[in-house]
Design brief:
heterodimer, A: MetI-like fold, 13 helices, B: MetI-like fold, 15 helices
């Protein structure tokens, strides 16, 4: 789509666009190019010179069991976060949609967690599940369950998944609620007349009608789980125990800033760039698809 | 529930929308859901109003105590490493800087792209477009080196500038400008108005709602940043509140000052929560727009 009416001149538009180009160039393109460049080198132990290794860093990464484990961890983590944040959200949205009155008040209450930063959410959940003073951990102990996410890998994973999903439930709820409100009532009523009960109507009519929203939410939640959960992981587990919660973004940070392995960290950045690219393409495919609805 | 053998070809009341017992069940489930979702925040609030001893001897109480003022005063004016008031101010500057900065540079470039034909226009558009969706998390090491090279560590510009390099807002304004009727620009041109006049007098007022909706989203985005401030603010007095909470935990086996930490958590969530709740409509609109 293009405007038919435009203004003349070329200097003014260049001036207008300059700030954004400048900032993108300095803080985006240059660092991205630098990441690609650095990924081809290994710095010597004293950081004085760089040795060209071609795709060596990538080969090393892909054969590194820790990196592969981190890939698997990320896959498990993002799948769980997506499920744990979408299913309760859909359930709550269905409930809210059935209410004629009061849905607005519930919505206001449910939005809260979205505004809470992932890192703060991490602290809240850490507080509840802290092995020494956490109230949930204490009641679990009372029931005879020895909760210790500091040592138990599955418990650590479970905790970061729940803490990461919590705020996303609000987000997903908003989108599902809006989508449910847009489902034509006549379709539902027609099915009801034909004798379809609630759950049958839900699975055969409502859920398929929600599929564009579901697909969209799948992609954004995966993007969220990949890139925006750093705060949760850093506050609760710092990637442990034994790297059980080291997702890819956390590893870029741990290797680059804590481990000072710049070549490897840069190569990991490049791999993440590719992942983001792939997800972006997916998202745009979805937008194109939705235009035809 | 709908009765399958109902011969009446009108949906009886309660078939689609819940009434009577079903309605109460729906409300009950909904309230249960809200309580579960809300519990972590409630617990944090309770913890911020009780003395340390009430927390270190579990189980902690579930109702607020009488230390509200003491704990919040302690957090705001002394904190652990640095007064929380300082961190709140840093967060505010960062969030406002990101929101205002991003809106300003992107509304200008969207205006240039939509309303002018100039050499390199398509190329520039794609250049900006590529930056869409690439989070700072992916390019942290080189971006950090750039900031360090400019001497912008521990500075507001270092906190803000790298995070406004993204095209989402530009893209949004472009989409909006394309829906603005051509007649307006035509009329402005016939009247001999200069492009910037048209921008300031017509386009800007028309974009008010879009700007406000975007502002809500960007403010929360900026306020809730974690990794970037963690990397570049080594000086505690430049910490933002969201990243500063983690720094309040002692290393090693010492017991954390939970009441102050939880008071800080509550303080850290209040500004974004207020923004979201008070501008709920704008917020939802901004959310839906920016994800489209």
């Amino acid at each position: 789509m293009e405007k038919r009416v435009t203004f003349k001149g070329w200097l003014l538009p260049l001036l207008l666009i300059a700030p954004q180009l400048l900032i993108s160039g300095v803080f985006f393109f240059y660092p991205a190019a630098e990441a690609v460049w650095q990924s081809l080198f290994i710095p010597d132990p004293f950081g004085l010179s760089m040795q060209y290794v071609g795709l060596g860093n990538f080969e090393y990464l892909l054969s590194d069991p820790y990196y592969r484990a981190s890939f698997l961890t990320t896959a498990v983590f993002s799948t769980l976060v997506t499920l744990v944040s979408m299913i309760p959200a859909l359930f709550l949205a269905v409930l809210a949609d059935r209410l004629v009155k009061g849905a607005g008040a519930y919505r206001t209450m449910l939005i809260w967690p979205y505004a809470v930063a992932p890192a703060v959410a991490g602290v809240l959940w850490l507080f509840m599940f802290n092995t020494r003073i956490g109230i949930v951990a204490w009641y679990l102990g009372l029931l005879g369950y020895d909760w210790n996410y500091v040592l138990n890998q599955n418990e650590a994973m479970g905790l970061v998944v729940v803490a990461s999903s919590w705020g996303r439930i609000s987000y997903n709820f908003l989108f599902y609620f809006a989508a449910l409100q847009a489902v034509p009532k006549s379709v539902i009523e027609a099915a009801a007349i034909d004798g379809a009960r609630f759950w049958r109507r839900f699975f055969t009519i409502v859920l398929p009608l929600l599929s564009p929203t579901t697909f969209f939410l799948l992609v954004v939640n995966i993007v969220y789980a990949f890139f925006e959960t750093f705060g949760v992981i850093h506050t609760i587990t710092s990637g442990g125990p034994q790297q059980a919660t080291t997702i890819l973004v956390y590893k870029v940070y741990a290797d680059g800033f804590v481990g000072q392995d710049l070549g490897s960290s840069a190569a990991q950045s490049v791999i993440l760039l590719l992942v983001v690219g792939l997800l972006t393409v997916l998202q745009f495919k979805f937008i194109e698809k939705r235009v035809h609805y | 529930m709908a009765n399958a053998s109902n011969p009446v070809k009108e949906p009886p009341p309660g078939m689609v929308e819940k009434r009577g017992r079903g309605l109460w069940l729906t409300h009950a489930l909904m309230i249960l859901g809200v309580l579960v979702i809300f519990f972590p925040i409630w617990l944090a609030f309770v913890a911020s109003t009780v003395p340390q001893a009430a927390i270190t001897h579990p189980p902690m109480p579930l109702l607020p105590g009488d230390q509200f003022l003491t704990n919040y005063k302690r957090a705001l004016f002394s904190g652990v490493n640095v007064p929380v008031a300082t961190m709140l101010l840093n967060s505010l500057v960062m969030a406002m800087g990101i929101a205002v900065g991003k809106i300003a540079i992107s509304i200008l470039s969207a205006f240039a792209i939509v309303y002018f034909r100039f050499p390199g226009r398509n190329f520039f558009f794609w250049l900006i477009f590529i930056t869409l969706m690439l989070p700072v998390e992916v390019r942290i090491v080189p971006t950090y080196q750039v900031i360090a090279g400019f001497g912008m560590l521990n500075s507001y510009s270092g906190l803000i500038l790298p995070l406004i390099a993204s095209a989402t807002a530009t893209f949004l304004f472009r989409q909006f400008f394309l829906t603005v009727p051509d007649e307006l620009a035509e009329a402005a041109r016939v009247d001999g108005a200069r492009p910037m006049r048209f921008f300031v007098d017509i386009l800007l007022p028309m974009s008010r709602t879009n700007i406000a909706a975007l502002f809500v989203i960007l403010f929360i985005y900026g306020w809730n940043q974690y990794l970037w401030p963690l990397l570049i603010t080594t000086d505690p007095s430049m910490n933002t509140v969201v990243m500063g909470i983690k720094q309040m935990f002692p290393s090693g086996d010492d017991i954390a000052d939970w009441p102050v930490i939880m008071a800080t958590s509550i303080l850290a969530m209040i500004p974004p929560v207020i923004v979201v709740i008070s501008m709920q409509k704008l917020f939802i609109r901004g959310l839906v727009d920016s994800e489209k």
